[in-house]
């Protein structure tokens, strides 16, 4: 049996990857699982949660899946991408998909452009209808500064794993992402040593690649990548 573990991002929840997970549940017979990292979900409760707890949560589910699956794929979104990379370097994962993976974060130019749209909507009285505003308003208000530091620590702790990734890796990045810049995807591509890696850039796409209107095309591309046969793809375990 093939297993596929999908990991959401910082301050997020499974909804960030569920459209892709649901796609696989309908189009394959895989064991597809999503998780909710500690302190995350519909109601944020991040205070006092360490980045090690986020790693441990994903690792526990991965180990469970390895016991019942012959092959395991991991898909990680944003911070979840860094967690996925860390686990793929440590365990016998067959293929890895990184969606808007936060090796680097905050695209200043795009962030300013998005703020300009927020200001225009505020002047027009249509701010409540702005997707960016509605999506991030609660997160900004309910995310402790200490949790933001834990996020930074996680990125720093997981980056060394990138240099040990020899398995097939698909790197997906929206070119209009205000949270994770395109340079993050290029950094990943240049750092990961795998001979089976692909950089897939999506024009006019923002951070939540699985929630975009044209996400169906992305889902088909990810499925094609995961179904592809790669010659001489090997797993090399590293300890972190």
From TrEMBL:
All residue ranges annotated as the Serine aminopeptidase S33 domain in the record: 5-213
Annotated GO MF terms: carboxylic ester hydrolase activity
Catalytic residues (positions): 78 (nucleophile), 177 (charge relay system), 207 (charge relay system)
Gene3D superfamilies the UniProt entry points to: alpha/beta hydrolase
Annotated substrate binding sites: 10, 79
InterPro entries, per database record: AB_hydrolase_fold (IPR029058), AB_hydrolase_sf (IPR050266), Esterase_lipase (IPR012354), Hydrolase_4 (IPR022742)
Keywords: Hydrolase, Membrane, Transmembrane, Transmembrane helix
GO cellular component, one term: membrane
The UniProt record lists the keyword Hydrolase: yes
Descriptive protein name: Carboxylesterase
Provenance organism: Bacillus gobiensis
């Amino acid at each position: 049996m093939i297993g596929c573990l999908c990991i959401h991002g910082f301050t997020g929840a499974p909804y960030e990857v569920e459209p892709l997970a649901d796609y696989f549940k309908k189009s394959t017979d895989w064991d597809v699982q999503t998780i909710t990292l500690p302190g995350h979900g519909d109601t944020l409760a991040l205070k006092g949660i360490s980045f090690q707890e986020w790693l441990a949560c994903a690792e526990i589910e991965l180990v469970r899946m390895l016991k019942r699956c012959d092959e395991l794929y991991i898909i990680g979104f944003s911070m979840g991408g860094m967690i996925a990379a860390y686990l793929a370097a440590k365990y016998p994962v067959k293929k890895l998909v990184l969606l808007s993976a936060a090796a680097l974060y905050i695209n200043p130019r795009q962030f300013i452009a998005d703020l300009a749209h927020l200001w225009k909507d505020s002047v027009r009285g249509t701010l409540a209808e702005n997707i960016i505003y509605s999506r991030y308003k609660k997160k900004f208000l309910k995310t402790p500064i200490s949790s933001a530091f834990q996020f930074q620590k996680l990125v720093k702790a997981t980056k060394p794993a990138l240099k040990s990734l020899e398995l097939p890796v698909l790197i997906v990045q929206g070119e209009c992402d205000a949270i994770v810049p395109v340079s993050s995807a290029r950094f990943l591509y240049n750092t990961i040593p795998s001979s089976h890696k692909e950089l897939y850039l999506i024009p006019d796409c923002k951070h939540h690649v699985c929630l975009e209107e044209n996400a169906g095309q992305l889902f088909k591309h990810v499925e094609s990548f995961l179904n592809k046969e790669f010659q001489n793809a090997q797993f090399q375990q590293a300890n972190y």
